[in-house]
Amino acid sequence: MAETDQWPLVRARRTRSTPARVVIVNRKGGSGKTTTAVQLAACFAAWGLRVRITDGDPQLASATYWLPPQRQAPFPTLLDVFMGECTIAEATAATTIDRVSIVPSLDTLGRVELDRPAGSDTVLATEYAADADRVDLEVMDAPPSMGALTVAMLAAADEVLITQKTSTLDRVGVAELTRPMQLVRQRLNSDLTVAGVVMIAANNRTMITDSIGKRLTMEYPDSIVHAVPHSVRAEEAPGEHLSMIDYAPESPVTAAYWHLAARLAPRLGLDWDVAPDLDRLVVRQQPIAVAATS
Ligand SMILES: Nc1ncnc2c1ncn2[C@@H]1O[C@H](COP(=O)(O)OP(=O)(O)O)[C@@H](O)[C@H]1O
Ligand SMILES: [Mg+2]
Predict the structure, then answer these.
(1) Torsion sign across C-alpha atoms 249, 250, 255, 256
(2) Which atom of ligand 1 has the smallest separation from the CA of 57?
(3) Whose C-alpha lies nearest to ligand 1, atom 8?
(4) What's the mean pLDDT when you consider all of the chain?
(5) pLDDT band with cut points at 50, 70 and 90 for residue 290
(6) Nearest CA to ligand 1 atom 17
(7) Distance 28 CA to ligand 2 centre (A)
(8) CATH number at residue 225
(9) Which residue has the higher pLDDT, 268 or 285?
């Protein structure tokens, strides 16, 4: 029996009255935001939760390209929500993954940054609150900038997940998030906390991952620091329009995301009907998780 076979039997449940909201950020493109958004959504959905992905970055391998909305074009998008032309409920579409829905975006989304429609800062928070019965978890895939879209997502979130490719250069992108997050906390959302930092291996040199992991653990002592190994399978999955769970269930990347989801669950106000057994999943001796306390 494959080691991963146990995971779909896991059952999670929500303990809070409102859905948890997590935003995945990094100022840089190519740092693993979309991959992490889609993988986490797929993991929590496999555990029985209803998850909505909001696509804030329609460029390249976007969440909308990866999980196309199961409805006829032209469909409403996140831009229409920002422009006040529809509600988030109306813009939410089913995907090919059970229990995962998406608020899609097209390359027109850039208009939000140009037009800055009144109320942009709070529109997402308000819209999610008005449609809270639909989902158990909101996952926001932020664009690689600190513009109006990212601010709206930070204002609507209770938890931030920072992703970064593990190279020294990419650490700059993480440091640049500190000030914008402080401002959002001061002015829009005092409850915002950093749930975790996800290190996506730029290659298989785990030495680098280890040293960066230790530094991040010191910088974010209250956050989960988690490593995801490198695999070309992760690069192939978007083109197949499948989550890694379906495309490469045995991949160490898939295992690393199961682990990340399990570690994040308490932070997101989730509890277990059937809990995952974290110790049973050891993947090819890779150091796939850096404990927050180590
Ligand atoms: N664990 C991984 N191993 C190898 N490639 C990955 C991994 N995670 C993501 N990638 C690839 O890196 C690129 C950037 O990832 P993506 O999630 O699109 O980043 P972002 O949303 O921050 O721009 C994509 O081509 C993606 O397929
Ligand atoms: Mg992206």
Answers:
(1) negative
(2) 21
(3) 32
(4) 89
(5) very low
(6) 32
(7) 9
(8) 3.40.50.300
(9) 268
CA 23 to chain centre: 6
Q: State the Cα–Cα distance between residues 263 and 12, nearest whole angstrom.
A: 12
* Neighbouring C-beta atoms of residue 234, cutoff 10 Å: 24
pTM: 0.93
Farthest CA pair distance, the chain? 55
To test ligand 1's pocket by mutation, which of 62, 149, 200 has the most ligand atoms within 8 angstroms of CB?
200
d(CA 279, CA 292): 16
Q: Which domain holds residue 208?
A: 3-290
Beta bridge partners of 224: 196
Span 173-229, pLDDT tens digits: 677 788 899 999 999 999 999 999 999 987 655 556 777 888 888 889 999 999 999
Q: How many domains does the chain have?
A: 1
Q: What is the dihedral of CA 271, 283, 23, 128, to 10 degrees?
A: -40
Backbone angles phi, psi at 222, to 5 degrees: -95, 5
- 292 vs 259, which has greater pLDDT? 259
Question: For residue 237, which atom of ligand 1 is closest to its CA?
Answer: 27
| Residues framing ligand 1 (Cβ under 6 A) | 26, 29-35, 61, 200, 228, 230-231, 234-235, 253
C-alpha of residue 279 to centroid of ligand 2, in Å: 31
Point out the ligand 1 atom lying closest to the alpha carbon of residue 61.
18
Give the pLDDT confidence of 79-88 residue by residue, as tens digits: 999 999 999 9
Residue type, 45: A
Ligand 1, closest atom to CA 31? 22
Residue with tokens 């401002």: 183
